[in-house]
What we know:
The chain is 47% helix and 14% strand. The protein is of the alpha/beta class. The strands form two sheets. A seven-stranded parallel sheet has the order 3-2-1-4-5-6-7, sandwiched between helices. A six-stranded parallel sheet has the order 10-9-8-11-12-13, with helices on both faces. It is globular and about 65 Å long. Mean pLDDT is 90; it is low at 396-401.
Amino acid sequence: MTTIAFLFLIEFPGGGTGRICQDIVKTLHNRGNHVILYCDNLPEHPLPEGLKCVQMPRIAGQKGRVRDKEMLPKLIASFKEQQVDICFMPHFYYRYTKELRAATGCKIVFSLHSQPFWEIVSKMSLQKARAWENPWRMMKWMFHDVWRFYILKSYQKKQHRRYLQRLQETDAFTVLCEGYRQELLAHFASYDEAEKKLYVLHNGSEPTLSILPQKEKRIVFVGRLEYPDKRPDRMLKIWEKVHIQLPDWELHFIGDGNYGHRLKATAQALQLPRVHFAGYQEDVVTPMSEASILCLTSSIEGWGLVIGEAQMLGTIPLAFDVSAGVREQMLPQWENGVLIPPFDLEAYADALVKLAQDEELRQQMSLNVRQQAKRFSLEAAAEEYEVLIKQLICDSSLPQS
């Protein structure tokens, strides 16, 4: 039997990518595959019986490069002992992949669970936000960062080199949709093996309630309250524009993060009515199933896990058209969701008012999105993984870099 490893060397599950990894590991195991999970801390929730978990603990304060190097012989020994045939890396790239691959002979798959080059957008957004904190950071932004990002594009070039290295040092590089695959093929047209190594593996969502509660006149924002990528501040600006036209609707923020305190202060300063901050919730199914509309205002959204979860619950998603992944989840427009041109707050406000005031439209779209969600179930995702695993293990013609 093929032994499949998942290497997740940060806090597990640790955010959306960790939840996706946890779900696919469980689903592959339940389908009869031999799966081993490598992580630095054991999951809080019990894993299915028979699913092996190997702990690779981190040392507090130890830098990533040092830790990766010290971990290499332990990983090699464990992979050999467990006879690992293929290893998925669904998070940050492990620096010694080439050495691990050469020493064990296992196939290595790097899985990108966001849109390509998300790091560039996140870095630029964070630096721009920090520039407003004090005059010195503003000067640094104007006279250093702007040149680095927009003129010299040094950070973009650095990330392009890193992506190319991942392509060269792995047996496969997976992305979340065909649009992302085409984007990377265009970037790395000069690398002859790119087309053979780039694959599509969709994310899947767990099935949810078959019988849903009565929908409330409630809009939810679900996710980390972080500025660089999620931009919840935009949701407050949109609510400021629409709350008078929607007097019987409420806006709920579900989640926490570093930007939460500033968000609450802004809502209070603007005296925005009917805004509620629910904080982090272990189970978001109930509040999201009761809501009519999910709003995302992200600058980066590779494959919105929360979009799929909302669709399964009949909750209609609105989001900025920031990526091919979001488009695949939500098109056709006004059937499976509503896409807004980035980052047009007026257009977003208009679409939200239109949807909130048209009950018949909401009811029809609620039915549509539940059907759309079935395309991206966990079982469908697991089947894609199994096809790729079989191809990589059986195809001896796959290039070896």
